[in-house]
Design goal:
682 residues; 5-stranded mixed beta sheet; alpha/beta; 7-stranded mixed beta sheet
Length: 682
């Protein structure tokens, strides 16, 4: 470092010296950081498209996609029978419930305590070896820190040391602390087997457990989410977009999932039920029967009412969407203005046919439209306005919903580049020639990475940069309308939305026309191009990543394994990890979700079977059956996939490692300044 260089960095180095005021302090931190950089890379888990499947997803977190069972097999091999291994795994996955179950089976479980303490401690030792003692210590309750550290350092010692170790176990049981220590060890294992969790979009819709998933995630040690179209749907609704509020309601009713709205988020559906009965009392609403309502007793009992509510909110949604399209001709969605194409006298609709020069008239499956004014079909009636005002109030004032949405914003983004992986939920809009599509986003035309960054900014403005959430308290009969909030709706269903990227969303056609040709939704060019190596290379370069060592990870489109589809695309450069966590998808996919695991040795893609249920897992140790589809990504065939180094990856090879190396460089500059008299120690 020259005097001139010191003068350039002097202000920063003086600030740094406040934290490290002596040569010893700076040197100690350098040693500490260098040691951390040499540790094996932590294990990352990637999942996608949870769609409210809370029990299955939370179990995958508990068993770390089979990692814990494999640790049990590695340590105990054939020395433990299968039944004992299952019982041990059940204890690690669900310590509170499993201990309660053991008490039910017999009163005194001292022998269980001793056996499980020894076994769980052994598993904990196996998963802590690649972390610093400091990190492990921070994860342990302070009052148990000394005891647990002793349990974690047990090894093949002499007889006296083994006697000391057994005495600790006996004392833990004698003092009544066995259950607390067991729970602490199990939760330590949960924390360390998944160092970082990535959710590549779509927590909401379909299944009933989105709120429970988010309750867990909001307290999770380290996760991020790349928002999906179903997340944006709920985020926009929580920000006050009326069209998306109507969409959330419609989708929830359609999939027999109103409990999420009423019980989890305290959204009052009584006004919608009242309005639906008054408006559609004699209408059978045959086209609006809830899907799979037979499996939901409450929905089964109120199927007729739910069908009426379904139709009522659908008509409101189509009106509100039409208003958004009319406000924004730049969306180029005029072909989705359908209500004004209806002949209300004859019960028909006239639309363009497959031949653009011709039109065709279709008979409607439902012709009862008491709330639509043929002269102004997109205007809400006074009753519909009042209904939407009240529903918006419920969404905006739901404390739990707003807390969950804030969590999604704080931990989320439209895309993420991390450790040579590019994560985004669905697509990067592309033209047929492989170039990136230019898209008008709130007055600014952008493409590629700039498009994703611009949209990310608009999404945040829609929630934080407007007064939309204060609207409910104003009791104003008009919805808050602004460019950013409207764009949230476009992201849900717009042709050039990176979260959708299809020519149209044919909800109206499915409800009212029933022509399969009209129901087709044509995917954008991306969905073909991204299955080929050149397009993936272009995308990775656009985001500043090296195609030779990087991968794209997506969800959004379920992989139909029953049809022979593979999650591995573009010669191994792109992985699609939507395997159907949600039950409605599993009949088509043939599996119950994927997890991608990226540890210091390799990448593994795990296919999951259907989860038998938490209660069964606690009682019998029944687990999700996992199948490793792709065992090792570190040395694939160089002729068919990107080549990875065969050595084990360390912290210095990661994004956080690069940050730590920058800190080491700064500390070395500070050390130089101290040792050459440019700064004085304090």
């Amino acid at each position: 470092m020259t005097t001139e260089q010191f003068q350039q960095d002097e202000r920063y180095l003086r600030l740094l010296s406040e934290k490290f005021p002596t040569i010893s302090a700076a040197a100690t931190e350098i040693i500490n950081l260098e040691a951390i950089l040499s540790l094996p890379k932590g294990t990352e888990h990637f999942v996608s498209d949870l769609h409210g499947a809370d029990e299955a997803f939370l179990h995958v977190l508990k068993n770390a996609s089979g990692v814990i069972r494999r640790k049990v097999d590695d340590i105990y091999g054939d020395t433990l029978p299968e039944e004992e291994k299952r019982a041990l795994c059940a204890m690690i996955y669900y310590p509170e419930e499993r201990l309660a179950y053991c008490h039910q089976q017999k009163g005194d479980i001292s022998d269980v305590y001793k056996t499980r303490l020894l076994q769980v401690a052994a598993i904990a030792r196996a998963v802590t070896v690649k972390y610093t003692r400091s990190k492990v210590r921070k994860l342990i309750r302070k009052d148990y820190a000394y005891i647990i550290e002793e349990l974690l350092t047990e090894g093949n010692y002499d007889r006296d040391r083994q006697y000391y170790y057994n005495t600790i176990i006996d004392s833990i049981i004698a003092t009544g602390k066995a259950e607390d220590i067991l729970k602490t060890l199990c939760h330590l294992i949960h924390h360390l087997v998944i160092d970082k969790l990535h959710i590549v979009g779509d927590i909401f819709d379909r299944g009933p457990g989105a709120a429970r998933i988010l309750d867990h995630l909001c307290g999770y040690h380290d996760f991020d989410i790349q928002w999906g179209n179903h997340d944006i749907e709920w985020m926009g609704a929580a920000a006050g977009n009326w069209a998306l509020i109507a969409t959330v309601l419609r989708v929830s009713i359609r999939y027999a999932n109103v409990e999420t709205l009423e019980e989890d988020y305290a959204v009052n559906l009584l006004p919608l039920a009242t309005f639906a009965l008054q408006t559609y009392g004699n209408d059978p609403c045959k086209q609006f029967q809830t899907k799979d309502f037979e499996s939901n007793e409450r929905m089964k009992r109120s199927a007729d009412l739910m069908a009426k509510m379904h139709k009522a909110i659908s008509i409101i949604q189509f009106k509100l969407e039409g208003q958004a399209i009319l406000r924004h001709p730049e969306y180029e969605m005029q072909d989705r203005l359908l209500l004004d194409k209806i002949d209300f006298t004859n019960g028909t609709i006239t639309l363009p046919s497959a031949d653009p020069s011709a039109v065709r008239t279709y008979s409607l499956l439902d012709t009862h439209f008491p709330t639509i004014d043929p002269e102004n079909p997109y205007r809400l009636t006074e009753e519909e306005e009042q209904l939407m005002e009240g529903l918006a109030h419920s969404f905006l004032q739901s404390e739990r919903l707003q807390r969950h949405i804030s969590c999604l914003y704080n931990h989320g983004s439209l895309f993420l580049s991390v450790n040579n992986c590019l994560l985004y939920h669905a697509a990067i809009p592309m033209n047929a020639d492989g170039s990136f599509t230019e898209v008008n986003v709130c007055g600014k035309t952008v493409k590629g990475r700039a498009l994703m960054e611009r949209i990310d900014h608009v999404i945040r403005e829609a929630y934080y940069g407007t007064d939309s959430r204060s609207f409910a308290s104003q009791r104003n009969a008009q919805p808050v309308v602004n460019e950013q909030l409207d764009y949230m709706w476009y992201l849900w269903c717009g042709p050039q939305s990176p979260l959708y990227n299809k020519d149209k969303m044919t909800t109206f056609e499915r409800y009212f026309i029933g022509d399969k040709d009209l129901e087709k939704e044509t995917k954008g060019a991306y969905y073909v191009l991204a299955n080929q190596r050149p397009a993936c290379e272009a995308i990775l370069r656009e985001f500043g990543l090296d195609p030779a060592v990087s991968k794209i990870i997506n969800g959004h489109i379920p992989v139909h394994t029953l049809k022979g589809e593979s999650p591995l695309r573009a010669e191994g450069m792109r992985l699609v990890i939507d395997g159907g966590f949600s039950k409605p998808y599993q009949a088509k996919t043939g599996i119950a979700g994927y997890t991608l695991i990226y540890n210091s040795h390799r990448m593994q893609l795990i296919a999951h079977s259907a989860f038998p249920g938490r209660a069964e897992a606690v009682r019998t140790g029944e687990d999700i059956q996992q199948r490793v589809l792709l065992l090792d990504f570190t040395n694939p065939d160089p002729n068919t996939a990107a080549h990875y180094p065969s050595r084990r990856l360390h912290v210095r090879d990661t994004n956080i490692g690069r940050e730590l190396q920058a800190q080491v460089r700064d500390l070395n500059l500070l050390l130089y300044a101290y040792t050459h008299g440019l700064l004085k120690e304090k």
